[in-house]
Design brief:
By secondary structure, the protein is α+β, with helices and mostly antiparallel strands. It contains six helices and 18 strands. Strands 2, 5, 7, 8, 9, 12, 13, 15 and 17 form a nine-stranded antiparallel beta sheet that branches. It has a four-stranded antiparallel beta sheet with strand order 6-14-10-11, with no helix packed on it. It has a three-stranded antiparallel beta sheet with strand order 1-18-16, with no helix packed on it. The chain is globular and about 50 Å long.
Length: 251
């Protein structure tokens, strides 16, 4: 049954198994093993840029944060405070900063990597709904990324200051995992949960894996004002690949 499901999925969504470390569909023990499959070594070289794209996917939106508002889609915005689970002090770090929202479709590689070097400071689990996060839903559901279950990972870089990677869950409970915690699935109390790492800092280098989605989803990144000038080739709905240039630090 597992092999039949994987074979159907590969055919339906056009998954390129030639890029996978393991190309043998019949050898995967579970659908999750297949879905979170690693890529062949070296198949996503890292660009010579200050910030690299952390995922395979498509650009939903990116650009400047308008005071504290982030563009979701035409006619829809949400605030940085809502996104990070109500922590106004954390959100204030990114006032007039920059953001990038990247969507991972079912066919994409579903591991997430670091856009630059960063030391993990905090991880915040924010309970929420489990809407699909595909582009159609993003255009139709107000505050989608600030309503769905999400995981806020707060990093600090010696070069770029504080930045945030928000993993937005979709459709199933426990759909997000990190390399330092495993699957993040607290008891369903509808309360925000937080972990801090100041006593045991975790340093991840640019391009290193930081987490994975167990079902297609979205990542939202926040950067301080004046930290990143985005790749001029980037545009909404453009396909992006792990390792390509996302931006440079303004001179």
């Amino acid at each position: 049954m597992t092999t039949r499901l994987i074979r159907w999925f590969v055919h339906k969504y056009g998954v390129d198994m030639n890029e996978a470390e393991n190309t043998d569909i019949g050898s995967y023990k579970s659908f999750n093993d297949f879905f979170t499959r690693p890529l062949k070594a070296g198949i996503r070289p890292l660009a010579n840029a200050d910030f690299i794209c952390p995922v395979d996917g498509a650009i939903s939106q990116f650009g400047l944060i308008d005071d504290h508002h982030i563009l979701q889609a035409k006619g829809h915005r949400f605030t940085t405070t809502e996104l990070v689970g109500g922590d106004s002090a954390l959100a204030a770090e990114f006032r007039h900063g920059s953001f990038a929202t990247l969507y991972l479709s079912p066919k994409d590689y579903h591991r997430l990597h670091m856009p630059c070097d960063g030391t993990l400071r905090r991880m915040i689990y924010v309970p929420g709904t489990l809407f699909s996060v595909n582009p159609v839903t993003a255009r139709g559901v107000p505050n989608l990324f600030a309503r769905n279950e999400r995981l806020v990972c707060v990093f600090e870089s010696s070069e770029h200051g504080v930045f945030v990677m928000v993993l937005v869950g979709a459709t199933i409970v426990g759909s997000m995992a990190t390399v330092w915690h495993g699957v993040v699935n607290p008891k369903r109390t509808n309360k925000v949960s937080e972990w801090t790492y100041d006593d045991s800092p975790i340093l991840l280098r640019k391009g290193e894996e930081m987490g994975r989605f167990l079902l297609g989803s979205t990542i939202v990144m926040l950067f301080r004002k004046g930290t990143i000038a985005f790749n001029t080739d980037w545009a909404p709905e453009r396909t992006v690949r792990l390792g390509e240039a996302m931006g440079l630090r303004p001179s």
